[in-house]
Design a protein that fits this description.
Helix content: 25-40%
Structural class: alpha/beta
Radius of gyration: 22 Å
Oligomer: single chain
Strand order of the largest sheet: 6-5-4-3-2-1-18
Largest sheet: 7 strands, mixed
């Protein structure tokens, strides 16, 4: 599971950071989170294939998280896309999106399917063979939620030495991965646990932007492999964070510490900071395994 950062700035555009957008990559599938202005250009720079994006999750309807959506949809059509595109967002975007599609994207050539989500509930809203995606209720000035990507458990690894020793045919490998024992020609039952090694532990990625500090949020994130939590402000602007329902880097680190996550990624920086190392230093005083998001960065979840 990889996380590609396309944009990690906040509402005011700067020359250093783009509006919010990310892509989660798992087993050759791409899932987009938020789509701020200019996302399609940053997507090109990342060399990620447009055609592999089939789902877009929008956290809330502030422009720096969704203004790039209709432009990207239009570009997909110009590229000859035929596969459906699924959009997950609050119901208010549905009506607006239909009007934009009618006005700007007549004869699009592929289907855009809208799925309304409830930002007040933690609920699985998407599932495929590789993962599930849950909503995470957040507290912002308008309805807003994060998203929690959970990888499904993988099958165990075959022990090649044991397969060779018992001369098990290749045709039975799938059954053994699925949990079957093996019976030798002499009638000896070889238990499955001797034939396999555990697969990799499932990974998980939580995206929490935008939100004020929620002391109880960690309960929804316990054990998450990687957490992206907004850190719009440093301690010097804690009052601004409270006023505009944003978080400081120190508060983000508290969530990570209390949840016991593996890694914290800071992002959604205020334009007032020319150097985000202040945010990083303050977060590290609370939680040591923290990194700064940056355009073009790719993180292993």
């Amino acid at each position: 599971m990889k996380v590609h950062i396309l944009g990690c700035g906040s509402a005011l555009p700067t020359l250093r950071h783009n509006a919010s957008a990310q892509v989660v990559e798992l087993r050759d599938r791409l899932y987009m989170i938020d789509c701020g202005e200019g996302t399609q250009m940053h997507l090109r720079r990342s060399h990620l294939r447009f055609a592999k994006i089939n789902t877009v999750f929008i956290s809330h309807l502030h422009g720096d998280h969704c203004f790039g959506l209709i432009g990207m949809i239009s570009t997909f059509g110009l590229l000859g896309r035929t596969a459906p595109l699924h959009i997950y967002a609050t119901a208010e975007l549905g009506d607006m999106l239909r009007q934009q599609l009618a006005l700007f994207c007549a004869g699009l050539g592929y289907e855009v399917t809208f799925h309304a989500i409830d930002t007040t509930q933690q609920k699985v809203v998407y599932e495929d063979q590789g993962l599930t995606v849950e909503t995470l209720p957040l507290e912002h000035r308008i309805p807003c939620c994060g998203f929690l990507f959970r990888e499904k458990p993988t099958l165990p690894h075959i022990r090649r030495d044991m397969i060779d020793f018992y001369r098990i045919p290749v045709s039975q490998i799938g059954n053994i991965k699925a949990g079957a024992d093996w019976t030798t020609e002499d009638g000896v039952v070889v238990p499955n646990w001797r034939l396999v090694k555990p697969g990799e532990p499932p990974r998980s990625y939580a995206y929490c932007s935008d939100t004020r500090y929620i002391p109880s949020l960690y309960r929804r994130l316990e054990g998450v492999t990687t957490l992206y939590h907004e850190s719009t402000y440093a301690d010097d602007n804690a009052q601004m964070a409270a006023k505009y329902y944003h978080s400081t880097a120190r508060e983000a680190a508290r969530v990570a510490r209390d949840a016991g996550v593996g890694q914290l990624i800071l992002g959604h920086y205020s334009s007032r900071y020319d150097d985000e190392r202040q945010l990083l230093d303050e977060a590290k005083e609370v939680f040591p395994n923290v990194v700064l998001a940056d355009e073009g960065a790719v993180f292993q979840a």
